[in-house]
Structure formats: structure tokens, C-alpha cells
């Protein structure tokens, strides 16, 4: 079925929660107001619905294929990429200096959701290209920027991130790929990288690999990683393409989902078609930034990629939700449970189907609101003239990144599972399409850092490091929202306030536990890291839906879009009564349940 | 990887929770003591591990194939079926009168778990054959029993259940298949049935279809359904096979999982190879029991099938758990979080991996314990000389069936998902195998009645109908266990008692809500049916692990299997602190959150 971009809900979040008009007052973002947002989103919706969506099921049926080192992408992908590039979509958030449009993340994030909602496999290529651009912007020399950025921003070339090796997944300390310095200042790379998304394909004329490797004598562990740029085809001084570089795709993976997205094993410095090690001339590459600072650059660009993967979770959930709603409207089965009729009705009228659809709505709208607000914090952190405000927003954004990545993708597993369930037996049949969303979503809690890695990040760098200050700042903001809810006084607002208060207090208990124990009992704290992440996700998405509820009540009074506003209020209330209510249990798990997580010795499993 | 049947844990549940020695004192079950259980389980483990397990991944890679109305099963399945039949496994729980072994369900259930743990796709064939046998035992005439039972029990023939039609899934009132009475007392069937597991295959010489259809003039709805037996090949008076019957497989489905199990579309009375309607001679069949009582018979056999699908959930979770543990032991990645070493360690040492593995253990052991105790209730209800005790056990068993089916399969979705997560990126690669368990499990919450159907059954027939008496009886038993825990006084027992008490009280609140509202506000009650089912599942599995904890403490004192007993205690404690703690939130959802489930009009989704 076709995908309809949820432009109205996106604009609601952009206008009322992220407050785009405040973003548009920041230096350099004067054109980025609500009008721009609306125009860009409508155009992106048109493109995503018209071009990308139709290729989604096709790509699943006809995955990317490898032969003799070449990868052919799924039918229609080459043409779609040309149109994507021609439309300027790759450059949306990148600087005008390199041909981009310099739009804020608050607008760009919605576009990322749309392209992923239309076609997750396709949208991974721009996602990784964004990351490569980011790395070069952060740390590339002027020469490297001149050489690569314009062509990446225009979509003429695409980019990749090369971190993982067979023995080094979450643990980058184990990376072995070698970088040998050459007399001309370049390096030659030797090693094997795996799980490289769009590491080889036929959609663009060149592929620009960003690669973590070690120079001779580098320190052990992550402090000895350097970042290199290594193109598939070498680039001549005049910008034209030169010789084929010694980086070759020796296979692609046979995966559970995102089958149209080629996941490559890349050999650096092993010659063409050779699966062994170190027998080729070496892959010519250039250092990005300084030696041994690779992890630092990688982290900055990984934050952008992690945020984008979180958007993928929202996107696939939205698409699965739309499909489930459509099926639930069409499928006629069983009489009403209250005996109000003798004929079978569309299943959307049955309470348990409504429970599943409402769970999806609350999850999706809560996550979308959280991600949009996080994007606004990023934009403010980038552009605000006041350093203190920049710093505050930076901290808030960084606190939210592991939630956007970890929580929104964990949620997408649950929601795509529910969407399949709504279809009953038909959901299990591949031709229906619900199963593809379920399969595609399954990678999201794994790549760009598993949920465990996000949870560790939340515990360590985002909570313990500042003694819980950012977490408590956010809790204080939530408390103000609770006061507004109580002041509003409607039954929905009061119910939300009650649940939100309890959930916030549960969160604060956990923050105290994390801060107090991160040094003295780290195993106990990390035993609760996942539950802390889920709890924080519930609370922060509930908070954003609480804000939405207040806005919707206000707009309802002025008669705007009554059906939309009433649905927003219902969805917020559902979140309070069915998602926020999980907070106390999670609090108990973290604060009182650590010992039973780590009580069993490895040999006793 | 190979599957190891969890015989030790099964015997623990059979001996100490189901108390097999009491079962063996019932009339007719004298041979069914612990010694028999041990011998049967060991033999079944040998067969499942040796024959069935190795075919599991092969079957996924080489699914059943349809050509010209014939279905070829996956490599090795024919031979495995011959061995299964020769071993007498199909007859395990069936009467000696028809060649079975007449063993109690308390033993048979463990065998069902093992064959499904080894190979879910394969084990579906015996599961459906059991159901067909059950239907004939319940309602078949002596002629039908003579004709079919011995050959089904021996595994010479296999059986199917034909309920679903394109327009009639959960809603059997919509079944349209016609049964036309013939002069000789037989009937001819005309119609289309879909989703028929092992509806066509090449493993046995005949297939015996049990089919729901309508006789002329039958009442509308479910009260007009009759049950028929319709063989693939007609059976002559002497028991030999006669002409091919007019029931044909026009296609099999392309599914997300259980790919080796052929899911057939069957045409009755449409001639060979014809996809139209009513153009063949009609499928010769015989009425089972009386006209218009088909649903009643179907329900009895469906209870057996639902229980068995619950065992499938436990089985696939166990297999996925074993694979995750193996990977977690082998995969070396990252240093200990507590800084206790500088080298990377096996990930089984990381707290969040332990959290995932413990979640799996607690879910699996809790569900296995619940299902084993339910089986003992079934056996007691069948065999106890005292009618009141029979009746009490019947009610307990029937209360637990929707939990075994609904809760254990919902849990299997979560646990196979976690098992994949433990593998990180490798989990997403099909060759690893974790993805197959994730895909296979996904049907379990759908077939033989979706989770919504189970939840409605729990609310309506199992709770509201007896005014909550059975639910409160069970709660009273749980309360005694709490008293024993408090009397024991160990920290683990006290922690468990505290969580169990709170969870039981939450459950009782929900039972009160269900009983009070089922007539006056059915939509509100059914809005909470899923959460009630999950809450009851948490409480009843937690209860069984609480009993396990008490037993394990006792056995530990006498020095028996200390590592196993300590692990049992840890697992129970984990359940208390990480699963039972969800009870209060679910209670609030049901009792205080109904309006927000059903608040949105169908057109506003």
C-alpha cells in the first residue's frame, strides 16, 4: 500500500512543540520559519510518496545482488537516486557553501522520517552520506572539503561509515585495520570491514568511505584510532575520477530485512576479488583531522547518525500503523462486544484492535514529538548567540540522542509487531507487506550502536558525568508542564498530570541511583541501564504529549481542526494511562532489582 | 546449532510443581510416575535432538514446495516422520485402545515442547494430528473411530483442522462451506478453506481433514456449524485406500516463518486443479457427532491445540535462549563495566547481556512451570475419582489455557526478539539462525486464536461466567504460597513474597473490575482484556517460580544439585523484581484506563 507522509502531525510538533518561529529568529536561520517548513515538508511528502514508496516492496522482493565484486541495486533504485540528488534532498541540512540549503534539523528531521517511512532501505544511503559529510565538515582539511563535499552534498557521490570488523562491533578498541603512511602524505589501508551499508552499489559514480584504522605505533585501544577518507575511485586534481582504488566488495549479507540496502564486506588493500589479507597495493586514503583522534570525530558524526536511526524507528512505525489502520477498517469480523448489533463489523470497532492502534499512535506521536524537540535543541545549540543557552541546549540534545536512538527504535519493534498482529493470519503472509516492516525494523535497535550501547551512553556520558544535572533540569521542565496541566484543570489534563508526576518522580529516583552508584557499584547501575533508558523514554515522550494536550485544548477552543485536536488529546491520555503507568515498575527494577540481574555466574546460564 | 532438550528443568516442574507422584496415584495412571516421566523424556530428548533438530534450519532454507496440487516437504521430513511414527510418539497421550500409550498430559506436554524446540515446522504436523484424533475421540461414531483412529494414532495417516475461510478467521459465524447430505448418510463438501496447516504434503499416505461446514437449513452463525471428517483418499470397508477425494490443494502460502510447514488453500468439491467453486463432484465426508454441534466439538479439540501452541511458544523461546547463551559465551567484546580488567571479555559477563538472558530464563521457566501445572490439573480433571475435585481442576485448567496460549506465545515474541538482540549485527544475518526463531515465533500469537481471542476467552468464559470464582480460588492458593515464603524468611523468599502479594492484589482488583463490568460496560472490560491476560500471566508464572524457589531452597539444604537450585532461586528473584513489578501498571491500565482505549472514533485513526 502507499505511504502517506504525516505532514499535519509533523507540522504540529514543529510549530507548537519545537517552536520553529523561535528557531527562525536565530542568526543564520531567518528563512527557516513555519512557511519554509510547510513548503519543504509538502514537497518532500510528494517525492517520498510518489517516487520512493512504490519501490519499497519491490526492493524487498528483489534485494541488492552481488556479482564479481559489483553490486546491482533493486529495480528502480538508480533512477530514484538520480531524482533524489536532482531534488537537492541530500543537501537539505548542509551548508550553502558546499551547495546545501542550510536548513535547521528541526525541518530536516521530518524529511528524514518521510524518506524512511517511504523506503527504509533506500533512505539508508543518504543517511550514511550525511554522516560522511558531517565527518568531513568537522575535521576535514580544506583540500579534502574541496575534493569531496560538493559532490557528496549534491548526491553525485555517496558516503559510507567503516567501523565494524569481524572481531570489533560494539567494541571499537579491537579495530585492526592498518594505515601505512606514504611519502606523499597519503596513507594506504589494509584490512577487512564488515556490515558496511551501501559499501558498494551502482547508484552513484563514486563512493567515499570514511574508515577507522590504526597508524603504526598508535596507542592500543580506542585512543589509537584515526579516521581516513578512502574513495572507491581516486580523485584527480581537477576533480575528475581516476584509477580504481584497492577497496573491494567481496560479498554482501543475506539479511532478515532492509534487503534492498546492500550490506557489504569490504577488503582494503587485498587486490580485486581476493579474500585474503594484504596482497594488494593498499587502498589510497587521506587522514581526516589528526592522527589518533578518529574516535572523537566518529562520535560527532555518529550522534547525527544515531539520531537519524531513531527517526527510522518512528518512520517504520508510522508506515506499519497506516497499514494496520487500513486493514482494520476493511476487515469485517465478529459482532460488537457490547451486543449493540447482530452483524459483523470492521475490526477497527473492536476494543482490543483499538488498544493496538492507540498503542501505536501514542508511541509514534510521542517519539516524533521528542525527536522534533531534540532537533530544536540541536539547532539552538548550534545557532544561539548566548553561550550559556547554547551549552544548555547542547546538553539537552545530547541527553536525548540515546533516547531518540534507543527508545524510538525499541518502540518500533513493539509497534511493527502490533501492526502485524492487527492483520491476523494475513500478517504472516509475506505478500501482505506487514511482515516486511516487522523484518526491516529489526535492525534498528542494533546498528549505529545497540540499545545497550545507547543505555550505557545515557548512564555514563549523559547522566553520571554531569552528576545528573541535565536529567534534573529536564525533570524541572516537566514539573512546570505538570503545573500547567493542573492549572488547565480538564479531566484529561488532570489525569495526565497525575501520571506524569508519578513517572517523573520514578525517573528522579533512578537518576539519583545512577549518580550515586556509577562509581561505587557500576555493575548494579549498568544492570538497570536498559530500564532507565525505557523509563526516561516513557517520561519524555509522555511529557511532550502532555504539552501537545495543552496546545490541542487551546486550539480546540479557537475551533481549529477539532477532529485532529481531539485525537491528540485522546492519544496523550492513552499514553498517560497505558505507557506512563509503566514507570513505577521500571523504577523498582532499577533501584531494587540490580542484584538479580547479575546474580548468576556465566557458567550457570 | 544443536538443540539440547531442557530435561532437568522439565523434570523439576513435573516432580515438584505438578507433583507427578500424585498423578500416578489416580486410577488408570499407575504407570505414570516419575520413573516413567524420566524415561520418556530422555528418549524424546534423544529423538528430538538427534533427528528433528538438524532439519530445522534446512527446512527454513528449503521450504515446502507446491506443484500441480502436490506438496513436497523439506529435505529429510519424510524420513523424520517415518521415525516419529515408528517411535510411537504420535500416540503418546492417546488411549491404548487405539494403539496409544495413554500417558498423562503432565508427561506428554514436555514431549510436545521438545519436538517443537527441535523443529517447530515439523512438530506442527503431529500437533494438528493430535487435534483430529481428539475430535474423533470426543464425538466420532464407533465406525469413524474404527476407520481412522488407529492409523492416526500410529502416524500412518495425519490430520488437519479446517476452520478458516477467506472471510472467516476469528469469526467462525461467517463460515460458508456447504455440506450436502447424500442418500447413503454421507455428505459432500463444497467450499474453500485457507491457512490449513499440513493440508497437503507427502509424509503420510493419507490426510484426514476435520472440516467445519453448514448443512442445508442450518441456523445462521456459529450455531449452524457441523463437523465433518473428510479424507484425502477415501477409505474402503477393509481399511485400504480407495479413490482420491475431491479435496485439492490449490496453493500454499509464502510466509514469514515456519516455512517448512505447508500452509494450504484447500478446495472442497471443485475438482482437481480448479480454483473456481462447486464444479467438482463434491468431497465425500462424514458427520462427526450431531449436526450443528460442530463448534462445541471444535472447542474441545481447540483447547488441546491452544495448549500445544502455548508449548510451542515456550519451545521456541528455549531454543532461542540456548543460542543466545552460546553466542554470549563465545563473543568477546568490551572490557568489564566495573573496570575490573583491561582485556575484552565474553559478553555474557556484561550486565545488560545478563539482563536479556535472565529475562529469557525467567519467562521460559515461569511459562514452563505454569504449563506443567496446568497439565497436571487437566490429568486430575480427567482421572480423579471425586467429582468435586475433577470439577475444580477442570475450572483451573480452563482458566489457564488462554494464559498458556496467549501469555506464553506473547512472551515468546519478546524472548526471541531478545535472543536476536544478544547477537548484535550477526543476529540480523540469516545464516546465524537467530532470525529464524524470531520469524517462526511470530505466528504463535495468531493461529489457533489470536491473543485477543484468548483474552476475550479469559474475560468472558473463564472469569465473568463464574463470577470470578476460579480466579479468586487461584488467588487464594497464591496467598498460601506467600505465607510459605514469609515463613521461610530468606531474603529471596521475602522479596518474592512482597512482589507476589502486590501483584496478586493488582490481579484481584482487575478480576473485580471484570466481573462487575462485563454486563454493564463490556467495551470498558474488553478494552482491558489484553492487559488482564498479561497481568494474570505475570502473576501465575511468578507464583510457580515462587513455589520453585521454596522447593529449591529445601533441596539446596539437602545438598541436591546446588548450581541448579541456586540458579532457580536467582531466576525466581529476577521474575519478582523485573516481571511481577509490572503488575501495578497493568492494573491501572485496566481499571483506570479503559476510556482512552476506546475514545477515538474509527474515522479519526
Automatic annotation (TrEMBL), chains A, B:
Domain of life according to the entry: Bacteria
Domain Acetyl-CoA dehydrogenase-like C-terminal span(s) in chain numbering: 476-600
Acyl-CoA oxidase/dehydrogenase middle domain residues: 161-268
Reactions mediated catalytically: 3-(methylsulfanyl)propanoyl-CoA + oxidized [electron-transfer flavoprotein] + H(+) = 3-(methylsulfanyl)acryloyl-CoA + reduced [electron-transfer flavoprotein]
Key word Secreted present: no
Cofactor(s) the record lists: FAD
Domain Acyl-CoA dehydrogenase/oxidase C-terminal: from-to ranges: 292-458
Enzyme class (EC, first level): oxidoreductase
InterPro entries membership: Acyl-CoA_dh-like_C_dom, Acyl-CoA_Oxase/DH_mid-dom, Acyl-CoA_Oxase/DH_mid-dom_sf, AcylCo_DH-like_C, AcylCo_DH/oxidase_C, AcylCoA_DH/ox_N, AcylCoA_DH/ox_N_sf, AcylCoA_DH/oxidase_NM_dom_sf
Keyword Oxidoreductase applies: yes
Pfam family, one: Acyl-CoA_dh_N
EC number, UniProt record: 1.3.99.41
Acyl-CoA dehydrogenase/oxidase N-terminal domain mapped to chain residues: 53-156
One annotated GO molecular function: oxidoreductase activity, acting on the CH-CH group of donors
Family to which this protein belongs: Belongs to the acyl-CoA dehydrogenase family.
Function, in words: Involved in the assimilation of dimethylsulphoniopropionate (DMSP), an important compound in the fixation of carbon in marine phytoplankton, by mediating the conversion of 3-(methylthio)propanoyl-CoA (MMPA-CoA) to 3-(methylthio)acryloyl-CoA (MTA-CoA).
Protein name: 3-methylmercaptopropionyl-CoA dehydrogenase
Amino acid at each position: 500500500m502507499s505511504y502517506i507522509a504525516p505532514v499535519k502531525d509533523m507540522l504540529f510538533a514543529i510549530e507548537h512543540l519545537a517552536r520553529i518561529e523561535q528557531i527562525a529568529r536565530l542568526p543564520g536561520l531567518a528563512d527557516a520559519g513555519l512557511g519554509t517548513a510547510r513548503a519543504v515538508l509538502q514537497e518532500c511528502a510528494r517525492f517520498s510518496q510518489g517516487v520512493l514508496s512504490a519501490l519499497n516492496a519491490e526492493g524487498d522482493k528483489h534485494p541488492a545482488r552481488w556479482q564479481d565484486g559489483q553490486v546491482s541495486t533493486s529495480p528502480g533504485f538508480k533512477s530514484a537516486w538520480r531524482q533524489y540528488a536532482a531534488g537537492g534532498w541530500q543537501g537539505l541540512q548542509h551548508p550553502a557553501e558546499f551547495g546545501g540549503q542550510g536548513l535547521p534539523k528541526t525541518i530536516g528531521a521530518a524529511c528524514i522520517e518521510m524518506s524512511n517511512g517511504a523506503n527504509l532501505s533506500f533512505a539508508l544511503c543518504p543517511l550514511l552520506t550525511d554522516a560522511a559529510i558531517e565527518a568531513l565538515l568537522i575535521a576535514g582539511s580544506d583540500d579534502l572539503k574541496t575534493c569531496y563535499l560538493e559532490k557528496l552534498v549534491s548526491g553525485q557521490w555517496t558516503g559510507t561509515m567503516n567501523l565494524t570488523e569481524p572481531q570489533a562491533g560494539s567494541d571499537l578498541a579491537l579495530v585492526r585495520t592498518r594505515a601505512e603512511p606514504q611519502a606523499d602524505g597519503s596513507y594506504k589501508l589494509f584490512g577487512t570491514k564488515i556490515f558496511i551499508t551501501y559499501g558498494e552499489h551502482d547508484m552513484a559514480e563514486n563512493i567515499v568511505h570514511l574508515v577507522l584504522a590504526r597508524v603504526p605505533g598508535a596507542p592500543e585501544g580506542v585512543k589509537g584510532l584515526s579516521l581516513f577518507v578512502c574513495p572507491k575511485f581516486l580523485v584527480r586534481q581537477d576533480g575528475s575520477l581516476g584509477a580504481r582504488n584497492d577497496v573491494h566488495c567481496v560479498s554482501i549479507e543475506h539479511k532478515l530485512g532492509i534487503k534492498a540496502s546492500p550490506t557489504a564486506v569490504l577488503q582494503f588493500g587485498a587486490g580485486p576479488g581476493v579474500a585474503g589479507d594484504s596482497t594488494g597495493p593498499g587502498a589510497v586514503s587521506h587522514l581526516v583531522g589528526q592522527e589518533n583522534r578518529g574516535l572523537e570525530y566518529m562520535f560527532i558524526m555518529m550522534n547525527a547518525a544515531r539520531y537519524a536511526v531513531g527517526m527510522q524507528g518512528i518512520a517504520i512505525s508510522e508506515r506499519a500503523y497506516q497499514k494496520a489502520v487500513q486493514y482494520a477498517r476493511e476487515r469485517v469480523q465478529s459482532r460488537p462486544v457490547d451486543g449493540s448489533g447482530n452483524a459483523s463489523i470492521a475490526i477497527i470497532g473492536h476494543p482490543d484492535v483499538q488498544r493496538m492502534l492507540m498503542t501505536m499512535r501514542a508511541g509514534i506521536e510521542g517519539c516524533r514529538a521528542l525527536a522534533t524537540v531534540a532537533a530544536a535543541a540541536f539547532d539552538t545549540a548550534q545557532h544561539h548567540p548566548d553561550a550559556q543557552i547554547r551549552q544548555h541546549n547542547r546538553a539537552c540534545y545530547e541527553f536525548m540522542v540515546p533516547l531518540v536512538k534507543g527508545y524510538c527504535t525499541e518502540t518500533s519493534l513493539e509497534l511493527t509487531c502490533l501492526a502485524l498482529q492487527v492483520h491476523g493470519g494475513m500478517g504472516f503472509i509475506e505478500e501482505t507487506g506487514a511482515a516486511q516492516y516487522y523484518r526491516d525494523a529489526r535492525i534498528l535497535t542494533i546498528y549505529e550502536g545497540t540499545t545497550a550501547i545507547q543505555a550505557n551512553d545515557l548512564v555514563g556520558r549523559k547522566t553520571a558525568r554531569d552528576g545528573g544535572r541535565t536529567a534534573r533540569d529536564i525533570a524541572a521542565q516537566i514539573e512546570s508542564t505538570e503545573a500547567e496541566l493542573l492549572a488547565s484543570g480538564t479531566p484529561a489534563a488532570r489525569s495526565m498530570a497525575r501520571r506524569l508526576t508519578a513517572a517523573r518522580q520514578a525517573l528522579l529516583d533512578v537518576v539519583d541511583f545512577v549518580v550515586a552508584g556509577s562509581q561505587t557499584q557500576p555493575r548494579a547501575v549498568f544492570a538497570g541501564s536498559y530500564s532507565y533508558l525505557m523509563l526516561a523514554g516513557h517520561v519524555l515522550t509522555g511529557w511532550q504529549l502532555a504539552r501537545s494536550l495543552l496546545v490541542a485544548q487551546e486550539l480546540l477552543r479557537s475551533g481549529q481542526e477539532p477532529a485532529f485536536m481531539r485525537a491528540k488529546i485522546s492519544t496523550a491520555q492513552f499514553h498517560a494511562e497505558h505507557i506512563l503507568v509503566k514507570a513505577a515498575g521500571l523504577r523498582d527494577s532499577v533501584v531494587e532489582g540490580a542484584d538479580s540481574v547479575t546474580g548468576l555466574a556465566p557458567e550457570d546460564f
